[in-house]
């Protein structure tokens, strides 16, 4: 059995894989190697079953009903908020707005926090390595307010140039943003240091945690940021789930963004009053079953343990990187000192999309393209990369199969 022993945990990879039914399917007649985890993760049985059970046994709408089912659905949905709050060590469950994902979370901050504060000449600071979800919402509100969006630079290794980020925290910056982990490069950014510098200057900091939460324990209080956005489907949960954590003082000062049911105290034609945060940001019927699934995903992470996950993923990352480096003409994009298991690369004389298409025929799922990070592609002067992104349920044997397939398809294209 393929296990790695550490004093605290024994990581039983075969038992873990047995929890993910999709991992044992074939694609084009070949055993699946799923290396597109940064795009979306696969879901373990407890997540699938929890959602199933919700619809079979407990389905009702939240908050409005006084009947038993309504209470059960509300308890399950609000229970997910409690779990997520503990998962990222939020000081209070009421600081956690449940959203459809990171994109809704960053847009909420853009329209409800940033836009009312932005004056012509102000700026929002982001970085060159961000996902479009941490760029475009800022551009939209900047256009409306006469503000600008500035991007802090990175170096050729794919590391943020911290001194330059800090130097760009000038008085006109009303919001600073950074991803904790890059979805293309795997780079882990020095968020604590950035948060410290932002606080010294009274600038609020938003951290995009989409690619961090699947890999490492997150403590928003220790990070010291003001906003933390995450998405559920990359962390074993269903699509259409996510959250925004924000400091209470910000949530209290922010006007609602979406209006409708669930977010009001009283509606009158001569003036509507709103519910307290977080409910004032959760108009309409939420993705109840989705959050039931996300709760189960959090339980699953906790049962495996991030210590074991980290150790296994870092071994896989090192092994995959070493094996890829053996391939002639292969260039890895993103060689930061601290990385999560995401490897972007190119092979001389081939197109990333051709490679990905042929790899699929070998049963290997990787992503090719710009990864919703155009400015990063522009920085590296490439239209796209091939990206292998790993999860704790992947194995060295899968890395070997991926390398064999890659060598084969490379030969076909050269
Ligand atoms: N930020 C990062 C770093 C991401 O990788 C992604 C998803 N690719 C997002 C934001 C957007 O997440 P979602 O589409 O789930 O809202």
From TrEMBL:
**EC id:** 2.8.1.7
Query: Which cofactors are required for activity?
Result: pyridoxal 5'-phosphate
Q: Which terms are listed as keywords in the entry?
A: Pyridoxal phosphate, Transferase
List the coiled-coil residues: none
An example GO biological process term is: cysteine metabolic process
The reply on keyword Transmembrane is: no
Pfam families of this UniProt entry? Aminotran_5 (PF00266)
One GO MF annotation is:
pyridoxal phosphate binding
Its recorded reaction(s) are: (sulfur carrier)-H + L-cysteine = (sulfur carrier)-SH + L-alanine
Q: Which residues form the Aminotransferase class V domain?
A: 33-402
InterPro entries given for it? Answer: Aminotrans_V_dom (IPR000192), Aminotrans_V_PyrdxlP_BS (IPR020578), Cys_dSase_SufS (IPR010970), Cysteine_dSase (IPR016454), PyrdxlP-dep_Trfase (IPR015424), PyrdxlP-dep_Trfase_major (IPR015421), PyrdxlP-dep_Trfase_small (IPR015422)
What the record says about family reads: Belongs to the class-V pyridoxal-phosphate-dependent aminotransferase family. Csd subfamily.
> What does the protein in this record do?
Catalyzes the removal of elemental sulfur and selenium atoms from L-cysteine, L-cystine, L-selenocysteine, and L-selenocystine to produce L-alanine.
- Annotated NCBIfam families: sufS
Q: Could you tell me what this protein is called?
A: Cysteine desulfurase
Please give the organism. Rhodanobacter sp. IGA1.0
